Structures are given as structure tokens and as C-alpha cells.
Amino acid sequence: MTRALGLVPAVALAAALFAGAAAAQTIKIGVNEPLTGAFAASGTYVVNGAKIAADEINAKGGILGKKIELVIEDNKSNPTEAAAVAEKLITSDKVPVLMGAWGSSLTLAVMPKLIEYETPMVVETSSSGKITTTGNPFIFRISPPSAVEAAAFKGIVDKLALKKVDFLVINNDWGRGTAEDFSKMMKDKGISIGLVETMDQGAQDMSAQLSKIKSSDSETVIVTTAVDQLTLIFKQAAALGLKKRIITTGGSQNPDQIIAQAGAAANGTMHLTTFLPWFPDKTPNPEATSYFIAEWKKRGFEFAGCTESFRGYDGIRTVAAAIEKAGKAEPAAIKAAFWDIKLKGLNGDIVFRKSGPEGKESGQSQPNVYLIEINEGKVEMKTL
Amino acid sequence: MSEFLQHLVNMLVLGGTYALLGIGLTLIFGIMNVVNFTHGVLYTFGAYIMFIVVHQLGLNFFLALPVAVLAGWLLGAAIELTLLRPLRGSDIDTTMLVMIGAWIAMQSGALWIWGGVAKSVATPFPEAPLVLGPVSVSWLRLFVLAAAAFLILVTYLLINRTRLGRAMRATFQDHDTASLMGVNVDLIYTSTFAIGSSLAAAAGALLGPVYVIFPQMGDLAAVKAFAIVILGGLGNITGAVIGGFILALAEELGAGYVSSGYRDAMGFVIIIAVLIFKPTGLFARSERVG
Distance between CA A118 and CA B70 in Å, rounded? Predict the structure, then answer.
């Protein structure tokens, strides 16, 4: 009995050593995404896209002679959890670099941890301007900030003959930031701003906000939130007989899901997206886009998720490129290497430019933004 | 004016479902004195039963409702028999901790089985709403309101007009005397918890198709249910119904005319006011149960 008990720690120690040795054979990348809670659908798409990139890289022999390993953690769509998960990934899993954290509020909560542990992170989705302007040199963002979206949208404002717009945005850094940046651009264009309504990220009933918008004298509503809440808004707007032009921003709409769930109510709606899976030939990198979409379908995922999942794919490829350039999987070297990489993303070249206060700039890439319109249940591209 | 009418219609539709959530909890929390943290999970459970019956078994939408109610009843009975019965007579903290544990375990179970991504349920109702002058309302929500009203009426009659209801009221008023009078107290405990649970499942089954279904959907619903019960007075069915409508009215008008950002806070401002000025709830029972 005593001997048997004595054996247990020895075996455990051996197992731990072996596991440690095995782990050293891979390069770990921390992935901090919302897999449950309000943004579960979007976060899961991003993670599935990330896995495609990791498998592709590993199939080609990995980087620096080692396979990459994604350490995926759920931040529960909750900023507190996002910060805790980042800390866990860095201190316990010892990842030298992160990708995350989908939502602007989630990313903003993680940012102090990056400074504390001097670990860089690729931001794949968040669009709040604050992320790259507050002076966090560990942030490298490949998604467009809402000001870039607003600027891209500027060109089409005259064509749409907008006069007065209302906003219905998610009540967090993403939604409020979007309302601010778009209002500013529109005021410059002489368009008047009507109501600015908000909704909690977990809210399921937006009838009150939509009833108010229905009675206003504007002709267009700008809606910013993720796909689950968007489908509810489209259904509830249809139930209330809201007949205004709806334009969504943020790139997390999954237009095909809106078509499937909102039916006729989706016709005539417009969406600012950051990827064109419907028209691979029109993307900056048609070959890679086609490969990605084929792989996505092969794994049995819904096509609707492509507009979100490509972010995970591009994010992991960006991280891998930086590790390769750095020549070693260490936080400081990877951080420095981000400034020197140039790769073809599915949505344009990924090159980081400096953004924010001097001396502690964040990296911001300049991706493309597209406007699409749903017409008779089909996605059409509009020229910006 | 037309906006105000639309807000009132929205309030009616929302209030009906809040009332349904409230009466299920008032039975358990108000009458049985069990702080039922599993109420929200039972609500979620009802919604998932709806999803399974309609989408995985391919059966009729209307058939799915009674199935969800029955499943909620069975799960409620199981919780009472396995968790609450051994703890009967122990202090409220112990029961509360066990119920919190059950809540977390069941929610994680739902996540494990169905995943975190929201699901939606197709309904047989037409997409086009019913338009009455300046207001419009979807057929699905009208059906939900009617079904909720029916369930509330049945519960009311059950508590106030049947032998079982009388036995329930007697048991929770004075457990020992009821037992001496020949009431099977064990059976009453189990059935009260099961009825309350089946009402939570019914609310989930009705609202799941209106919204989307995901493992944490019950959390906000449970918080609102507690608010409604406190608002209406513990154990008071009529109070819970009125409390449900008051909460819906506060949310609708608060979001419509004050600020939509504080929509979910409106109800709680009222509750704080009620607790300050009338701590036993708006419609407190004095001694009578039910």
C-alpha cells in the first residue's frame, strides 16, 4: 500500500515532465474569444476560422520547425472574464502572443494585462477607436476602426440621399463608438441625426426602442450589434411594421443568416462588411479566399459564418507571420516583428502602421470595407 | 400618440409573459419559501425542449408546448425529490447554496449538450404582423399572450378552487397541522415545486421561439421573475400577475421616454422604491397563503 502510494507522485511527476517536453515541441498561441453569452455565435465562427489557419500552417510543416498550437479560452462575452482569461493564457499556459478578444469592451478589458505582462495581441474584430488611440504598444489590429468604416461610407451617403438618420446601437464601447464616429461624419455631410437608441448586449426585446424609431421622422436607421441581436431586431422591426431603410455596421452581421431568419424583412437592408465571401473574385486575394471558403464548407460550417470566421483565419496567419519573422517564440521579439510583416490577408494587405500617442503607438492595419445590399433574398455588392 | 399606443400594446404582450414567469416563482419562493435559483434554468430547459421537439423530432409546434410543460414538471419533481427533500427543515442558507449549485450545474449541462451558440425555433405563424391602425403586433406574440393568460388562469383555479390547492395552502401555512389533518405533506411539497417548475418551462417554451435560445437565456429571466415576485408580494398569484405588467410597463415607457440604455434598470428602480415604502410588496398577504 505504502509503495503503491509512493509511486503515484513519481508517475505524476513523470507525466508532468513528459507533458512539458511535449509542449515545448509546439508554439502556443492564446485565443481569447466569446464562446458563450451574447456573442457566442460570432466568437465560435472566429475560433473555427483560426483553426483552419492553424491546420493549414501545420500541414505545411509549421513555423520555425515546430507545429503551432492554439490555446482557446472562452471569455463568456464578459469583460471581467476576458481579462482573467488573458492572464491565465499568459501566466499559466505561457503563450508568447494572443489573439482576441472579439468585442471592443472585451479587448479594452484585456489591454492593461498586455502591458502588465508585456505580451502582444492581434485584435481581429473590435472596432472601437479607443483601442488603438490610448497608447498601448502591445496592440496590433487588423479590423477597421469605426472611423474607417464611417469614412468608407461617406462616399455613398450622397447616392443614398440620406437626410435624417436614427441610431440603434449596442450599449458598449463598440456601439457607442460607432454612433459617435458615424454621427460626426454625417453631420459634416449635412445630414441630421435623430434618435440615438441603445440596447444592452444581452437584451432580447428591442420593441420599445423600435417603436420609438418607428414614430420618428427619419428615413434611415443605422444599426450596430452582433448577428444574434440583429436577427431579433429584424424580426421585431417587421412585427412592428417599421418601414425605414436599415443599414448595419461592424461586419458581424452574417447577412445570409439575416436572409434566412428575417425573410422578406431583410430585403432592401444594407450592410457594411469587411469581407466578400459571395464574390471571391472581387476580394484582394481571390485564391486564398476561395481556399478558405472551400475549407470552411468542407468542415461542414454554415456559409453565413464566413463573414466573421475569416477574421480568425487572418488573425492567426498574422501571428504566425510575426513569429516566423521574429525567429523565436518570445513576446518581445514577436512584438517587434509585427512592425515588419507584410502578408496578403483575405481582406487586403496586412501591414501595421503606427496609431496613437508617440512612443507607445499601437499597430493598425488598413483593411477594406464593403457595402452590400440584400435584394430579393440575394446579396448584391454596392460600390462605395 | 400612435407611439404611445404601440408602447401599450408592447407592454401587454411583454407583461403576459412576465406574469407567467412570476407566478411560477411565487409558488416556490413565495409559498414554499425556497429561494429557487433554478427557475431561470427551468425556463431555459423549456425553451430547449421546444427546440428539440420542433427541430430534432420534427413534430408540431403546438404539440411541443404541452411536452415542454410536462418535461418541466418532471424535472421539477426530480429536483424536489433529490435535492430539496433531504434538506427539508434545514436553514434557508443551506437550501440556497444547494440551489445555486444546481443552477450552475444545470446551466453548464445545457452548454455541454447544446453548445453556446443561440438557436431559433421556426413557428407556424405568418411573418406579416396584425396591423390595427397605428399599432401592429406579431401573431406569434398574440398567441404567446393568449397561452400565458390561459396558464395563469389554470394556475389560479388550481390554487384557489381545487382540493390540491387547498392542501397546498394548508401545508405551507402550517405544515404540522396540515399533516395531522391527513394531508400527504411530502406529495404537496413535490407537486408544488413541480407545478412552479412546469410554469417556468412553459414560459421558456413560449418565449424561446419569440427570441433566441441559448444556455444563459434564463439568467435575466430569473432576475426579472424575482423582481416581479417581490413587487407583487410573496406568494400572491394576483400580485405576481399585476407585478409582471407593472414591470413591463416600466420597461416600455422607461425605454420609450426616458432612456433605452437603462431599460433593464427601470424595473429595479421601482423595486427599490417598493422595498423602501412597502417592504412586503404591493399586494402583500397578511396570513393567508395563495
Answer: 55
